[in-house]
Known about the structure:
Blueprint lengths: L3 E11 L5 E12 L4 E5 L6 H9 L6 E6 L2 E2 L10 E4 L11 H6 L10 H11 L15 H14 L4 E5 L7 H18 L2 E5 L3 H7 L2 E6 L2 E6 L1 H6 L1
Parallel strand pairs: 3-8, 3-9, 6-7, 7-8
Antiparallel strand pairs: 1-2, 1-4, 4-5, 9-10
Helix pairs in contact: 3-4
One adenosine-5'-diphosphate binds next to loops.
Amino acid sequence: MSELRLADVRKVYQTRGGEDVTAVRGVSLEVGSGELVALLGPSGCGKSTTLRMIAGLEELTSGDILIGGRSMVGLPPQRRNIGVAFENYALYPPLSVAQNITFGLRARKRQGWQQRLTEITERLDLVDILDDKPGGLSSGQKQRVALARAIARQPEVLLLDEPLSHLDAAQRDTTRRELRRLQQDLGYTTILVTHDQEEAISLADRVVVMRDGLIQQVGTPEEVYDD
Length: 227
Ligand code: ADP
Ligand code: ADP
């Protein structure tokens, strides 16, 4: 696994009206190899924009993003080894759950994808719906498929945006536990956006709080939630 570094990253959106919206104002952050950082902050503070820039879905206005010391600037999403589970990062409707999860794995001729698929789908309780199409699934099931897809790619960096928000309380508990075990076993360098304090406390090594496009606070979950 590799460390992730954001160096003075800025993002200014040009709106259709010709107005500039500064979404991220100069964020510098290092996420260590295998570390899980929870990213918190009020709506509109720049969390999604930050994740989208790391994933390559949005260009940086300035600054640099490095994975394992290599700059990602200018690389399209498919050339970055990043697993994402975003709210609006849709599953492909015509493909089965299994095909959605393994999409890109076979294309990359990865070794051992079948074993990996079995392990991940068992741990995320997806075995019974592998042949189903996404259209017929509950939003909680879709969310677990998206998580499985992100992890199955064996990414260097995992980006999760509210990955458990559509699960009911019981499922959130079990999925959170599985996510924690997977993260510990596989050691992914992870950024997790969440509003859920319990999720941040149980999963995160460090918590980063953003406000108005800037990092306001960084600390252990205990430090941040003690304030
Ligand atoms: P968060 O994920 O923390 O809610 P966002 O990154 O979505 O924050 O948004 C940060 C700021 O950038 C907000 O002011 C938002 O309105 C603005 N913004 C986000 N996406 C766009 C876009 N595509 N065009 C213009 N402004 C945007
Ligand atoms: P948006 O609606 O924001 O454009 P999409 O969900 O359409 O986001 O996907 C954004 C990118 O991710 C596209 O380049 C698309 O090809 C890719 N993508 C979407 N679903 C999958 C998938 N199941 N496997 C691999 N890549 C995907």
